[in-house]
Amino acid sequence: MLILFLSKQKGNRKEINDRVDCFWQGKDISTLPTVTVQLPIFNEAEVAERLIRSAVALDYPSDKLEIQVIDDSNDDTCKIVDGVVRELKNKGCDICVIRRDSRHDFKAGALANAMKVAKGEYIAIFDADFIIPENFLYRTIALIDDYPKTACIQGRWEHINKNENWLTRAQSVGIDGHFTAEQGARSYNNIFMNFNGTAGLWRKSAILAGGGWQGDTLTEDLDLSYRVQLEGFKIEYDFDLKCPAEIPNNITSLKSQQKRWAKGSIETAKKLMPRIIRSKQVPFLHKVEAFLHLTHYTVAMLMAILCLCTLPVLLWIPMINTTWILAVIWSIIVISAIAPCVMYTGSGIVLKRGFFALSHFPAMLSVGTGLCLNNALAVFEAIIGIKSPFVRTPKSGSEIDVSKKGRYSLDSSLLLAIVEVVLGIYCAGTFIIYLQAGKHIFGFFIAAYAVGLLTFGITSLKQQLFSSLKAGSIPSGS
Q1: Does 245 reside within a domain?
Q2: Is residue 139 part of a domain?
Q3: For residue 63, what are the β-bridge partners?
Q4: How far, in Å, CA of 287 to CA of 51, rounded?
Q5: With a threshold of 0.90, does the pTM exceed it?
Q6: Is residue 20 in some structural domain?
Q7: Which of 181-190, 405-414, 440-449 has the lowest mean pLDDT?
Q8: Per the residue annotation, which of 71, 72, 145, 238 is the catalytic one?
Q9: pLDDT at site 314
């Protein structure tokens, strides 16, 4: 993915910037299309006002801009939203609040319900943890309006609170890798790419052509992205359109977010891979990449199996004496270990954050190993068809120089936290045994799992204890 991105990124970024400049040269503002900005919200008291005010500040003619605050909240977020919307309406903004009697189909249902009354032929979607950049429509309208087969323009996520703690720094490295090497490679090489659920501008007719928003998976964005591309539309990525967002600043929130993404990806794979495989319009290699893309979270199950099997392999499997087999096995292991570091560091270099990415790779490695059991469980549930509600990720309202704890909390699984701690201790014991056996290199591989699992498990247990002792904590509303 990194090679595919680097080979084309300069030319494609220049072409995109040239298209934007060309579109606006001598443009008659009266001919611009109407755009509806949809802001799906559920219990976002910490960030709702920040989001709404950033939408109003968009650099776009006010008579061509409609803002829908899609509020499914059941707490005092409703009062905050109503107050801000009332103020902005009095100033002449075309803004409204849309509420439902139930949360049927969760975010997908809310978006579909609001789209029925949307005035715009294009729809911009932003989640509550974002601050919408003023130039968002300036760039995206230029990239989509003259291209009828373009369904969506996706912006690049930036980070409001990247330096809040070690967890946000580690996540920022992973997110940068996704929005550099992965999304860039897919877009520039016409491979299936996905809308990331937010920070994107959609052509309304393309949404309808793809079958509309559907709530039968937890990743409605990934699902719709593939469906519209199977209908012959294209999703483009604007690397230079920076959309700042808040990163989850605690382990419980991150585990909830990752579980939803992991489970939803596998649900989408089960739903759409048969159709992708049967398609005569999709090239074979694109089918392979689509399979890897939609099922990549299954690696969590392999990681969990690795944790369990490493010690028995040492104790009970006889030593392989065939040198060339060992050479092949170790070559695969080394390449597998180096590849992610190369991708994330390479992505960081393009973003002028190369040393930051490299120096924080160990922390990101701990996040990856710490999440393996959490994500493996999500994948397993998706495979056997266990359904679960859409649990939104709590936001704290943290900013560049302001760290906030936030009023919302999530109840993580106590049993999962205990198993994580037990498996972490098991991995630590395996590490010691491997060192005693002189298997130092592979011993340090399993040590990474021990660190990650113990960090996530102990932190989750502490969070559970804190939640049980805290009086009057606000539920997540999941």
Answers
A1: yes
A2: yes
A3: none
A4: 37
A5: yes
A6: yes
A7: 405-414
A8: 72
A9: 80
